[in-house]
Design goal:
This protein is α+β, with helices and mostly antiparallel strands. It has seven helices and 14 strands. It has a single domain, classed as Nucleoside Triphosphate Pyrophosphohydrolase. The protein is 23% helix and 25% strand. The two termini are 23 Å apart.
Length: 264
């Protein structure tokens, strides 16, 4: 028997985006950040950089300061911009290219403005103009889409993207929303979570498991591009041993049943 809660009392769903930034050296790894313990959502958890979209992500002037603009559906452009912005705010990495076509590897100006941009005191698009770079929207490949179940106090419609970092792009936590940044093999993150050494929330763990099926950044992007995107919205199923959270079996994660007690 399926137990779906009524949508009438559910909180509003906010659009959000997150990025699985990948590298192959010294091994296949993904960038993850540890959320500050005082953050009200996923506090203390190991997550991928990401967050909800901001008004500035919808600025039409991004058409002049982005690569791949015409190849991206209009409704998805702000999400990709948000994913890139959040990776910059939380980990100091900007997925962008210089006029020469070379990847932007960071500089003192970008490092100095992280906090003011995260606090909405300086528009992200103004920094991109000052740096004279273009966001590389085409470098992101859609990996997954998850909608928070309506039993949660906050709900997000989150798009997950994969992208490959260059060897020169170094990550550093912001000290505000995140307190640690680390490159880690997906399988190692899963092991640490299983042993209780890391807190990893349900959607993050599911996407780590999916990512761990890949052997490299290129393989991960190719697998993601070849999958049919199924929007995942978990729901509750009543079992004799207790209620569980489940997802669509055709979403690419296999048969999943997560005890609700494990989400507490």
């Amino acid at each position: 028997m399926l137990a779906r809660m009524s949508d009438t009392a559910a909180p509003a769903i906010r659009p959000a985006a997150t990025i699985l930034l990948l590298r192959d050296q010294p091994q296949f790894e993904v960038l993850m950040v540890k959320r500050h313990h005082q953050i009200d959502f996923a506090s203390g958890a190991l997550v991928f950089p990401g967050g909800k979209t901001h008004a500035g992500d919808h600025d039409p002037l991004w058409a002049e300061w982005s690569l791949g603009w015409d190849d991206i559906p209009s409704e998805e452009r702000p999400l990709r911009i948000a994913a890139i912005r959040e990776a910059y705010e939380e980990a100091g990495v900007i997925m962008a290219r210089a006029p020469s076509g070379d990847p932007f590897t960071g500089d003192d100006r970008a490092a100095a403005l992280r906090e003011t941009i995260a606090n909405d005191e300086h528009p992200f698009i103004e920094l991109v103009r000052e740096l004279d770079v273009r966001l590389d929207l085409g470098a992101l490949t859609t990996f997954a889409r998850w909608i928070t179940p309506n039993l949660m106090p906050k709900r997000f419609d989150t798009w997950f993207y994969v992208a490959t970092a260059t060897g020169e792009q170094l990550a550093a936590c912001d000290g505000r929303e995140t307190v640690d940044a680390e490159w880690i093999a997906p399988s190692e993150a899963l092991r640490l979570a299983a042993e209780g050494q890391r807190k990893v929330i349900f959607p993050t763990r599911m996407n780590l498991q999916l990512l761990a099926e890949s052997s490299s950044a290129t393989d991960a992007a190719e697998r993601a591009a070849g999958r049919t995107l199924v929007t995942v919205e978990p729901w509750v199923v009543q079992r004799p041993g207790g209620n569980v959270l489940t997802i669509q079996p055709d979403a690419g994660y296999g048969e999943v049943e997560e005890p609700l007690s494990a989400l507490a």
